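Design request, C-alpha cells follow.
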C-alpha cells in the first residue's frame, strides 16, 4: 500500500510568498530574491512531506500565482495582446509576461488588460482562465516544470512526482475567444505537447506523473468524453516507462466512471470525502492492474479525520483489489487547507483536539496506512477526539436549533413586490440616473493594519484605536463627497476581513492566528472555523454605520456579508448539513439588518459574493442547493420595510444557468463583476429580462491598472444596450481593500466622470 499527496500549500507558513511577490511587483526585490524565497518554500514543503512518510510527493504544485496560469505559460497559450512581452520572455521577461497575464501591465507605453479570473470549480481559490482561438497553437514555452522536478528529485529521489493540469481539463476550464469552434476541438493539437512534456520528465527520471483532471467529475458532453478517451489513448501510445496517475476531486465520477476507469493509465484518484458512495461503483468496474488512490482525508476542511470511517473505505478497496493496488491520499490538493496546526496556541484545547491542518493531514494519511496494515496504535486517540466532538456542549445549542426549526415562508418574503419598493426608493433617495457607488471597502493601508496590530498588542487602547478609525472614515467620506459619488460607503477600516469580522462577533466561530490559505495571487485569507451552532449575541456593525451616516447628508450604505458567503468562506461543520448551518447564519444576519434599519440606515448591502461558488458541480444537485441558498438570503433581508433598499454583490459568476434564482433573491440592487469579461455576463440578465436594478462593474479591481473614462463609458454604453438604462448603477467590480490609494482615487475619478458622461449621452426611459 502506497501513500501520496496531491499538492501542498505554497504560500509559506508565514505567507512568505505573498510578501515576496508584492515586494517584487513594487520593485523592492529582484527576481533572484523572489526565486530564493520560492526555493526555500518548496524545499521546506518537500522535507515536511518526506518526514511524514509520504511515498509520492508532488512537485510543480508550487506556483508564483496560479497553477492554471503556469500551465498556459508552459504550453505557450499567450493571448495576442501580450506579444510585446512575449518577444522578450527570457529571464525577468518571462516573469513580466507571467504577472502581466495575471494582473495587467501599464508601463513602457503599454496598457495590457489582465486575463479573466474565476473560481476553481466550487472552491474559493481563483484561477486565470486560458484564452483560446480557433487557430490556437501549443508549444513548450516555459521550463519551470522541468527545473522543479530536477530540484525535487535531488532531495526526494524516486518519491518526486511531477504534477500538472491534465490536457482535457485545461481546455475545458478555458474559454473560446472567438466564434466558430469548441475548445475541446483543440485536443488533437494539444496532446503532442503533453507527450513531449511527459517524455522529457521521464528522461529526467520521473517514475510517476500526476495529471489533474477534475472535469472528469463534471457533467460532460459526448464530445468532451471523446476528448478524454482520445487524449489518454494517444498519450499511452507514445509514452512508456513512466506511470500516469489521473486525479479527480470535488465530486463523484458518476456517469463518467466507465470512461475514467478504462483510460489507459496506471492509477486513478477519487474523492471519497465529497463522494464516498462512488467507491462501490468504481470497484465494480475497475479493470485489473489499475491502482486506485483513495482520497479519504479531507483536503478542504480543518477537522480531524475519522479513522474508523476512512478505514471502512480502505478495507473495502483492499478486499476487492488488494493492498498493493491501493493508495491512501487526501481528497484533493492541500492547497485549500491551512498549513500547520502546531502554530496555533490560542485555540480552545478541546476544540483544537478535533482539528488538523495540512501538515497534520499528511500524518493522518500515514496513520491510516499504518492502521490498515495492522498497527492500531494511532486509533484510540482518534476515537476519543471524535467522541469528544460529538458530545460537546460547545457545539450544540438547543435555542439556536429551535429557532431554525421555526422558520416560515413569511420570514423569507418582503412585504411588497419590487416595483412598489422601487418607487419608494426613488422618492426617498432622489438619486440621478446611473447612480455611482462602490462595493464597500477602501484600501487597507499599512497605517490601518498597524493600528489593528497595535490594538492587539496593547500599544493602543480601544478608545485610541477607534478615534483613528473614525478619522480614516471621515476622510474617506469627505473624499467621496468631493468626488461626487452618490451612495457612500464608510470604507470598512475597522474590518480585518469581510467574513472574519462577522465571525469574531458571532457565537459558534473560532479564529486562527496563522490559518492562511491562498485565494488568488498574493491574496491570502484566514477563514473562520464554524465549530458549533451560530447565533448573534450583540450588534456587529451598527456603531460604525451610524457614525458614518452622521458625517454626511448623502445616503450611506450599511455593509454586511451574507449567510451563504460566510458559510462558503469559512471552514464549516461536517457534522450537520450546510443548509442547517446557513439558516443559523441567516437568522443572525437578519437580526443585524433589522438593527441597522432601526438605527436609520436606509440602504443595506448584504454581500453574497459566493452564492455561485457554492453551486454543486453536478446539475442534478443544483436545484436543492439553490432553493435553500436563495431562501437564506431572503431570510436575511425579509424583515425590513419596503422603504429600505437591499443591495447584494456577487463575485466572478457565470449567471446564465442560475439567473432565475438570482432574480428570486429579490434584491433591490445587485452589483456584479463584469469588466474583465467586457460585460459578457450581462447577456444572461438581458435574455432573462432581469426585473430589478443592477450595477455591472466597470473596472477591474484585481489589477493595478487605471482604466480611462472612455473605457468605462464604453462599458456603460454596452450595458445600456442590453438592459434598461434606468436600472443601471455604476460601480467597480468588487471591494477596493487590496488596492493602493493613488490608483483607487484615479480610477474612481474616471468612473464618476464616465457616469456623468452616460447621463448626457444615454437616454433613460421613464
Amino acid at each position: 500500500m502506497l501513500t501520496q499527496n496531491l499538492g501542498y500549500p505554497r504560500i509559506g507558513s508565514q505567507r512568505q510568498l505573498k510578501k515576496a511577490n508584492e515586494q517584487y511587483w513594487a520593485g523592492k526585490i529582484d527576481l533572484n530574491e523572489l526565486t530564493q524565497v520560492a526555493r526555500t518554500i518548496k524545499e521546506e514543503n518537500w522535507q515536511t512531506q518526506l518526514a511524514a512518510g509520504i511515498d509520492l510527493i508532488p512537485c510543480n504544485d508550487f506556483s508564483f500565482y496560479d497553477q492554471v496560469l503556469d500551465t498556459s505559460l508552459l504550453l505557450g497559450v499567450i493571448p495576442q495582446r501580450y506579444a510585446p512581452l512575449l518577444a522578450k520572455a527570457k529571464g525577468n521577461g518571462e516573469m513580466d509576461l507571467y504577472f502581466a497575464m495575471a494582473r495587467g501591465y501599464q508601463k513602457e507605453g503599454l496598457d495590457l488588460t489582465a486575463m479573466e479570473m474565476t473560481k476553481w470549480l466550487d472552491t474559493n481559490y481563483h484561477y486565470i482562465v486560458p484564452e483560446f482561438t480557433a487557430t490556437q497553437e501549443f508549444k513548450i514555452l516555459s521550463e519551470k516544470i522541468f527545473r522543479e522536478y530536477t530540484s525535487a528529485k535531488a532531495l526526494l529521489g524516486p518519491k518526486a512526482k511531477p504534477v500538472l493540469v491534465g490536457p482535457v481539463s485545461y481546455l475545458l476550464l478555458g474559454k473560446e475567444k472567438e466564434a466558430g469552434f469548441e475548445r475541446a476541438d483543440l485536443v488533437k493539437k494539444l496532446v503532442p505537447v503533453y507527450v513531449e512534456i511527459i517524455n522529457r520528465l521521464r528522461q529526467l527520471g520521473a517514475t510517476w506523473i500526476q495529471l489533474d483532471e477534475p472535469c472528469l467529475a463534471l457533467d460532460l458532453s459526448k464530445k468532451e468524453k471523446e476528448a478524454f478517451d482520445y487524449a489518454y489513448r494517444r498519450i499511452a501510445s507514445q509514452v512508456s516507462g513512466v506511470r500516469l496517475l489521473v486525479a479527480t476531486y470535488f465530486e463523484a465520477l458518476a456517469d463518467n466512471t466507465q470512461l475514467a476507469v478504462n483510460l489507459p493509465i496506471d492509477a486513478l484518484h477519487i474523492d471519497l470525502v465529497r463522494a464516498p458512495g462512488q467507491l462501490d461503483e468504481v470497484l465494480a468496474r475497475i479493470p485489473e492492474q489499475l491502482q486506485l488512490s483513495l482520497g479519504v482525508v479531507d483536503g478542504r476542511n480543518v477537522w480531524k479525520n475519522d479513522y474508523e470511517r476512512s478505514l471502512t473505505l480502505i478495507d473495502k478497496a483492499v478486499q476487492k483489489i488488494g493492498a498493493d493496488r491501493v493508495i491512501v491520499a487526501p481528497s484533493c490538493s492541500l492547497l485549500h487547507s491551512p498549513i500547520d496546526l502546531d502554530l496555533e496556541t490560542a485555540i480552545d484545547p478541546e476544540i483544537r483536539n478535533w482539528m488538523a491542518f495540512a501538515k497534520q493531514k499528511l500524518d493522518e494519511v500515514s496513520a491510516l496506512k499504518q492502521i490498515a496494515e495492522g498497527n492500531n496504535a494511532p486509533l484510540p486517540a482518534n476515537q476519543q477526539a471524535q467522541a469528544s466532538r460529538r458530545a460537546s456542549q460547545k457545539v450544540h445549542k438547543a435555542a439556536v436549533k429551535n429557532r431554525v426549526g421555526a422558520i416560515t415562508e413569511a420570514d423569507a418574503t418582503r412585504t411588497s413586490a419590487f416595483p412598489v419598493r422601487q418607487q419608494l426608493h426613488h422618492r426617498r433617495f432622489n438619486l440621478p440616473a446611473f447612480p455611482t457607488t462602490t462595493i464597500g471597502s477602501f484600501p487597507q493601508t499599512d497605517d490601518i493594519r498597524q493600528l489593528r496590530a497595535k490594538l492587539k498588542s496593547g500599544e493602543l487602547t480601544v478608545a485610541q484605536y477607534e478615534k483613528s478609525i473614525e478619522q480614516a472614515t471621515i476622510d474617506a467620506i469627505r473624499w467621496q463627497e468631493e468626488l461626487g459619488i452618490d451612495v457612500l460607503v464608510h470604507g470598512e477600516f475597522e474590518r480585518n476581513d469581510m467574513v472574519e469580522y462577522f465571525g469574531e462577533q458571532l457565537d459558534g466561530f473560532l479564529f486562527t492566528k496563522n490559518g492562511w490559505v491562498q485565494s488568488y495571487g498574493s491574496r491570502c485569507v484566514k477563514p473562520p472555523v464554524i465549530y458549533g451552532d451560530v447565533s448573534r449575541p450583540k450588534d456587529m456593525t451598527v456603531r460604525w454605520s451610524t457614525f458614518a451616516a452622521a458625517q454626511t447628508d448623502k445616503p450611506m450604505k450599511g455593509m454586511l456579508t451574507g449567510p451563504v458567503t460566510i458559510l462558503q468562506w469559512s471552514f464549516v461543520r461536517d457534522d450537520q448539513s450546510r443548509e442547517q448551518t446557513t439558516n443559523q447564519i441567516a437568522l443572525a444576519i437578519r437580526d443585524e439588518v433589522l438593527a441597522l434599519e432601526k438605527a436609520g440606515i436606509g440602504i443595506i448591502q448584504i454581500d453574497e459574493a459566493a452564492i455561485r461558488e457554492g453551486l454543486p458541480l453536478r446539475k442534478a444537485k443544483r436545484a436543492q442547493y439553490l432553493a435553500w441558498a436563495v431562501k437564506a438570503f431572503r431570510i436575511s433581508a425579509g424583515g425590513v420595510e419596503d422603504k429600505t433598499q437591499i443591495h447584494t454583490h456577487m463575485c466572478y459568476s457565470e449567471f446564465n444557468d442560475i439567473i432565475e434564482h438570482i432574480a428570486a433573491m429579490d434584491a433591490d440592487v445587485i452589483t456584479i463583476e463584469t469588466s474583465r469579461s467586457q460585460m459578457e455576463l450581462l447577456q444572461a440578465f438581458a435574455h432573462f429580462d432581469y426585473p430589478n436594478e443592477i450595477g455591472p462593474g466597470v473596472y477591474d479591481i484585481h489589477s493595478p491598472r487605471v482604466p480611462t473614462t472612455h473605457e468605462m463609458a464604453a462599458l456603460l454604453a454596452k450595458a445600456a444596450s442590453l438592459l434598461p438604462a434606468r436600472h443601471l448603477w455604476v460601480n467597480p467590480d468588487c471591494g477596493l481593500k487590496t488596492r493602493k490609494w493613488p490608483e483607487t482615487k484615479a480610477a474612481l475619478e474616471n468612473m464618476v466622470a464616465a457616469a456623468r458622461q452616460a447621463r448626457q449621452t444615454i437616454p433613460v426611459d421613464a
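Comment from the thread starter after seeing the answer: thanks! The domain at 2-6+138-391 is CATH 3.20.20.210 (TIM Barrel).
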